[in-house]
Specification:
single chain, alpha/beta, Rossmann fold, Dihydrodipicolinate Reductase, domain 2, 2 domains, five-stranded mixed β-sheet, 7 helices, globular
């Protein structure tokens, strides 16, 4: 039996990619392709919803889906820790509800964020530099926010506290995300790139991931889509779907929220 999917943000770059993957798969069917400004009622009749709209619309998309008993996969930026906490509380009130929030569908990006979290306990000087194409309307990216929050959680869990981030009054030093400076670049010719710089006496460690083509997102999109019908609660990131949460439980790295 095929699963009927409504895609919100279907006219955008990611929406077109998701729609194509659905059309090419044997287990999904595109029930509706809705623009970011379209009528959300068009998603009714679908089995699940994929939101790849814009940050200003994403909350309304998720609210509408949950109100109508639809599970939703979110690939839209803007879901900070505070917003995720409120969403987790809401989803927790309904045992049948399920939401997956994915800051980045690239498997390499997910692993890079985990490696950064592992390194964060050993360095007190940390900064993130992330770059996307000129048309990306939000900054910092959801990936950078997720990475900073993972690193901050790892440091808190290990008793390290906040990183050394002097001159926070200077805007050029980056936006503080979970106490970590994040710098955003929006420039033509770039798909997506993130570097996390760790500094200590006599050495610098840099973890870098670059997306060269949107095809890097395909495996993660399909992985999350196939997990969505059985999802309960709130899941943040592909970490749990890749089995990284089990590794974190053994090694001490922070786990994602929710279940799958």
């Amino acid at each position: 039996m095929t699963i009927r999917v409504a895609v919100v943000g279907a006219t955008g770059r990611m929406g077109r990619l998701v729609s194509r993957l659905i059309d090419e798969s044997g287990d999904f069917e595109l029930a509706a392709g809705i623009s970011s400004k379209g009528e959300l009622s068009e998603m009714l009749g679908a089995d699940v919803v994929v939101d790849v709209s814009v940050p200003a619309a994403s909350q309304k998309v998720v609210d509408f889906a949950l109100e109508h008993g639809l599970k939703v996969l979110v690939g839209t930026s803007g879901w900070t820790g505070e917003r995720l906490g409120a969403l987790a509380a809401r989803v927790g009130e309904d045992p049948a509800a399920g939401v997956i929030i994915v800051p980045n569908f690239s498997l390499g990006s997910v692993l890079a964020a985990r490696f950064a979290a592992m390194a964060a306990r050993y360095f007190d000087s940390i900064e993130v530099v992330e770059a996307h194409g000129a048309t990306k309307i939000d900054s910092p990216s959801g990936t950078a926010i997720r990475t900073a929050e993972l690193m901050a959680a790892e440091r808190e869990g290990s008793g390290r506290g906040l990183v050394a981030a002097p001159h926070t009054d200077q805007r050029a030093r980056g936006q503080q995300v979970a106490g970590i400076p994040v710098h955003s670049i929006r420039m033509q010719g770039i798909v997506a790139k993130q570097e996390v710089h760790f500094g200590a006496d006599g050495e610098v460690l840099t973890l870098s991931h670059e997306t060269l083509s949107p095809s890097a997102y395909e495996a993660g999109i399909l992985l999350a889509l196939r997990a969505l019908p059985a999802t309960r609660g709130l899941t943040v990131g592909l970490d749990g779907l890749l089995g990284l949460d089990e590794a974190a439980d053994q090694g001490g790295a922070p786990a994602s929220r929710g279940s799958r």
